[in-house]
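Q: Fold this one first, please.
A: Sequence and structure below.
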Amino acid sequence: MNYGEISGNTARSDASYYSSSYGGGVYVNNGTFTMHGGEISGNTASSSYSYRYYSSSGGGVHVENGTFTMHGGEISGNTARSDATDSDRHSSPVGGVCASMITLGGTAVISGNTIPGSMPGNVYLPDGGYITLSSAVPPEEGMSVGVSTAASDGIFVNSGASAGDARYFFSDIGGYGVAFSSGQLVLIVLTDISTATVTQSGAPLVYTGLEQTPAFTVAYDGAALVEDTDYQVTVTPQINARIMYNARITGIGKYTGTKTVYWMIFKSNQPAPSAPALSSKTHNSVTLEAEAGHEYSLDGTNWQNIPVFGDLDSNTLYYFYQRIAETANTEASEASEPLQVTTDALQSNTLTGTAAIGNMSPRIGDLLYGSLTGGNNTGALYYEWKAADVYAGSGETYTVKTADYGKEITLVITSDVQAGEVTSQATAAVLKKAAPAAPPAPALQAVTYNSVTLEAEAGHEYSIDGINWRNSRVFGGLAPNTLYYFYQRIAETTDTEASATSPALGVTTDAAPGTDPGTGGTETLPGGSEVKYPAGTVLDDQNGTVTIIPPHGETAIVTTTDGTTIEFSGGISVEPDGTIELPWGAIVTTTSGTEIQLPEESVIDPDGTITLPDDETAIVTTSDYGVEVEISGGMKVEPGGVITLSPAASGEAATITTGNGTKIILSGGGKIECGSAFPGSAQPPAGSQRLFILAGPDLPDDVEIAYDNGAGGIIPGGSAIRINPDDSISILTGSMWTGAAPDDASSSISVYELGGNKNALTVSVTEIFPGGSTIETIVPINDNEAGYYNVGQYIVYADVEDGDRIRRCFIATR
């Protein structure tokens, strides 16, 4: 058999005594059956008599005496079944292929064949029967065969196998897997890898600004396991330092189950800066020159964010220090060398005394009281409150605002009689309102063999380790029959800290399901999306919220109403309104083929709006040129696969990071269609010609090209990337003509110096038509005062598109 289909056939025996039926699709009594292609599916071998001895075998193929050889094609969806009532007097060994001499190779697929009420049956080997791996057409990627054996030793390939051949087979017997040993392939009892010892190998990872991936060593009972033979590691490369990331160890071969481990990137060190510079001083205060990202100290021990020091003594020598402040990815630097400053001498009639703030550790909502003690004041006092050295309010009292969060408060007091001013010491940085009390332990809503769902509490977040927190209350990818501890807390808000962690809720997952996990299928979800899931998937509907958790190592795919697909492992939750929560991330593929890798805790609204967690990014790989960009903020997948960047709604900028590290900051949002051609990763359209090169210094890989709002921005017509009119990235526009095509075209470029080592550029394209007529098209490139191109090397391309003869030009950084 080389091609075609054998389907819908039945070998059936209704005989009354010692009856049998074999080979619903193909039956060979004595001879050889060879299959190179085609499909054998939907065939049945069955017996129905209710009492006497009978058997049914080989729903797809049965070779009684002879050899079955398969190098390609597919045998699936066949059944060997029994309708008898006397279960002690029948056998139905296999639904797919039954033969004692089987040779397999190429891309043969034998899967999805069943025996209702019994174990899945694909290839059944009677005692003494073995599979031979073809030497003429060796197994290759795509081959997938399910196996069960009658022999107690479980050997199904008795010679000539290699370790890599194990990946082409899977066990039809629950709790068993495929292993390689001394040239043989054998079915063995699987070992749960969740009890293995996993350690991070190599030196600790330290923040570098580049993606880093940890390495792990895995051991079971003291013996080292081999990656890609015994286990696989699923881990997302990370850039930023943080407390914990997670990685998943998945058992393969003789191992099953998963184990989640945690790893981290440590903050890097920074060099000490030079000594601070003096900005101004009075008899009781010193102000240093402010440096972005720095903090300041009077003693090298206690640090503050603002460079203002008050409540000093007059005519006194002080030593001031600065350091580079700690960030999310870097440690604070060592202190600088000191700056020596002597405060001014006290002049006559200068206001003296001590300005004080009653609460030096303020929180949002606190009422602060100001005072001047001692000194020489004889007039009325004026109180000016500052947050981060910026005016915040006046009067003897001040209520700390939400906008003051993270800032230090100072008080400046003046008099209508005495001259000068008195400045208080700075408070500690403003904190959020104190955390509420810890809530009680979470309550259990549902548990399966690989998932736990907690009861939802408004404004709460949940954790399986008390370290990493999430909004989703559904935890998937868990090991069966294993005790886990779950926690909840009241989530942090814009003005209030997160509560302390609740007591733990201990939950033991159910035992693994039996040997008949089903065959998978499809389900319509809230909002109209459809999910296609494999066998063994957990489908849980609680009050209209559907939780979907595929089995270990497998994925399910949700297709939205506009054709966008969402492939995920670990699990998702679909709310009644169609909102999809992705606790373990997912890969989204739009209808135009663009791929989006979403991080954990992403959310997709019914209208296609994607919300990313704070400080996380999505990776977008375009379909035509394969350009990869990193998106922060948010986005929306519109009909047709267009991705609209949507950071503007939150008042933040989106950042696109190209493959060579160039960053493009979009202050007003924008759109990305199927492909991309923009600074840093530009690819000219097919058939484009290079017109000229604008020479200049090399463009650094880490340059940031800013596109500010302005009337001169251009929407690139017909481009793979679309930007709002107030943002410019590339030029794919020009004159548009129908009918006669130009005989020739030339181009030139004008460069305008805007100052500050920045240029504006204009491209001029002259088209020469039959008869000698010429048309000149001027294409400004971000030609406005607010926007600019950094000085660097640029390439100008032009292209004439077939059909409507659209002249297209664009610029790209080299």
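Q: Good. Now the second chain.
A: Here it is, same layout.
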Amino acid sequence: MYRQVRRFITVVWLVISTVLFAGCGSPPAVGAPAVDAAPDAVEAVSVGRADTGIAADTPTAPETEPLDPLPTGTPPTAEFARFCQTGAWQDWAKATTIGKLTGPFKGALEALGGGTPFVKGTLETMKFVPDQPFHLKQIRAHFSKGSGKVRLRVTRTLGRTYPAAFPKPLQTAEDVIPPIEAEVTGSADQWQTFEVVGAPAYLLPTHHYMLIYEHLAQGPALAIETVPTGEYSRALLFMPTSIEAYGLGDGKETWNYRLEAVGDTFCQWKEPEHWFGRSNPFGTVNSSQVAVADLNGDGQDDVILNAATALPTGTFSIPLAYLGTGKGQFAAATPNSLAQALGASFALFGDIDNDGDTDALTFPYVTRDGDGDGHPVPGDDCDDTDPKVFAGAKEITNGKDDDCDGKVDTGDIATDADSDGLAPKDGDCDDTRSDVSKGKPELPDGRDNDCDGQVDEDFHNRIWTNDGKASFTVVANSGIEAMDPSTAAAFSDANADGKLDVYWGNWLVHYPDHPSVQDRYFTGKGDGTFSDAMQAAGLVLGKPLSCYGVVWCDYNNDGAQDLYVSNYHLYPNQLWQNDGKGAFTDVAPLVGLDKDDIAPPADLKSQGLTAGHSYGADFGDFDNDGDMDVFVCNLAHPRTQPWSDTSVLGLNLGPPGFQFQIVSKQFGIEYDEGDINAAWGDYDNDGDLDLVIAGVYTGHFTRLYRNDGDSGFTDITFEAHAALHQASRVVWWDADRDGDLDLLFASTTEAPHVWLLTNRKGTQRRWVQFELQGTISTRDAVGARLFVQSGEITRMRDVRLGGGHWNVQPPKTLHVGLGDGEVDSVKVRWLTGKTEQFSGASWGKRWLLVEGKGVAAAL
């Protein structure tokens, strides 16, 4: 099947006159990580004030009476059989309301905030996600005003956000029940129940569905309620004259429609029955990255998170180290290993000086021109938060140094207006803020806090060398002390000289306007210092693009490290092919990895905006045919379909051209609006790579797909208990050292933020793990490729150090599932070009492969 798949795309014609990039992203806070883009549901204009002219004693939540159990009759379809482990499915029936509403009554809506009345074809919707297999039997609705005929529907979704039939949402081909039409009369305090008729409607767990009230006229009016604290709105409004989805709220609170799905769950799974167990060993840390590395040299994997941390001098984003025991248990490092890396929004780990321990490269996020005044940082702007302050600006009497000449107003003001202990004449360069004056600590906030004429000058990239015990020392004058808005980074050895090199990607100079800050590439000298090689390597673009992901991988099997760069803002991606000596040529258009082949509207095409909003990517040989395939995450709003790229499963067709064929839909990967990171790993040790996808956006969840070979991929998110809300960072990793891969997720939005999912299933099959160590190659063996032959199948894995969006870095250990097979042969292709055979390895153990030894050593 893999080789027979051919791209098939149905083009849905959609005319869109304008695309506002400002709606596709959010400006990063100065000195903080770039905020991920906003979903359609949030971008949309709020509806405005609700009509609250209904009695105050209206019930605040519906009363749901228990339903009769599932009737005998048509059983669930075959796709539900895997959920029902024992007994008859009828015996499991339990009356349930999915997404039960508990908020206080708010009123009713009959028009947009601007006064545009609802008309025939208006859709008021509520998304719901069953957490168990579900038999839909009834729809409950509260119509609070007016009378007339209503039409109620339940449909699948597009991108897990819009009705599946969009841009023709009135079509019912994707509905899961026949439309229900009924005459209703609104009531201040009475819900109404509508029976589902026809064939039974069985809904899959963790899949997304939408309840729809389709207007046949302006009314009756559907009631709304306030979303309780700690919950989020699931409501969207669609007008027949717009492609936008309108969220419900007035700027102070959000609302839900009073629509509920009622029925029975069946074949329920209890927590111990799921294939992964959830735990939260990291407390309430709100982390923007996840990385796994051995910091203290004890042979156990440690976890590095990153979070805003309150210190005596201010609140800073810093890396937080948790030392591991190897059994899935962790303790915060005391003192914190990288506590001095103030302002670092993420860190990259590798043995930079080849001395056998793990060093670090930290990246503060520094906005280049946050206030959009055209005066960048570093440069002649002494306040990057105020567009009226820069060198040469007009000085006015306002307590600030408007023209950045070191003097406030007249220069002789003796009063201390901000009560920070200094008057302007004594060294306060901003007498309107108490955190700005001579001697104050510099903060990553876009201001000249210490009044030395520079903004955020203390917050640049730094190299940190490790003493082997998780104590780090900064390398002075390392060569990489840039102040960039960096979003992604990865180490490699692109010139194969045995020393780590680094590429990092950057974001916009000023959000939301183009251009971006140029990405950077530095070659290492092996002593903690680096040289700028961007120009010499041929990587400089004529127009810098907004990068959101990087990953190194030898895609064409020539032994050299190639580089994939994911770009945002509908810009094409690059696949930089390495000539083996560290010089690069972009071949993405030639091999099909720059964008898909659906043309955008003409006005966008003329601007070169032909692709998608790409984030993290990961390479892996999912079909075990000897070349690296790829999954590229794309944020893709439903209103921009079909021309804005959705996430891409790219099948490498191998020699001679090593072109990629997009097979996402054919292989069962569902389109989700908010994908931003993905990772390959063999969770069940059956010998082929499975796929986990992490995403952003309210109401969106992580997904886990099992690789079923020629049958494609199966969504096993429910069985794995892997549906985590807004978890956008993920790595595979054998946290408890039991021979199967676990999952580490991080979310910056929803507590408890960091989840460890411990695998309960993988040890049922055979496995083997390897750590590679270079002697001529880099000590980390970065870029080395492992080949493990078992029977007729050879599986390959690469050593990588970082990558994805915001650096999601798994450990260096290479995990190979074997199914029921043996370890027949082990080879390593080092970056020196030599392929070395190793003897002595067997399944069920961890092994060390040292370059030049030829014999595997047990760990």
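Q: Anything worth noting on the second one?
A: Helices lie at 40-43, 588-591, 602-605, 717-720.
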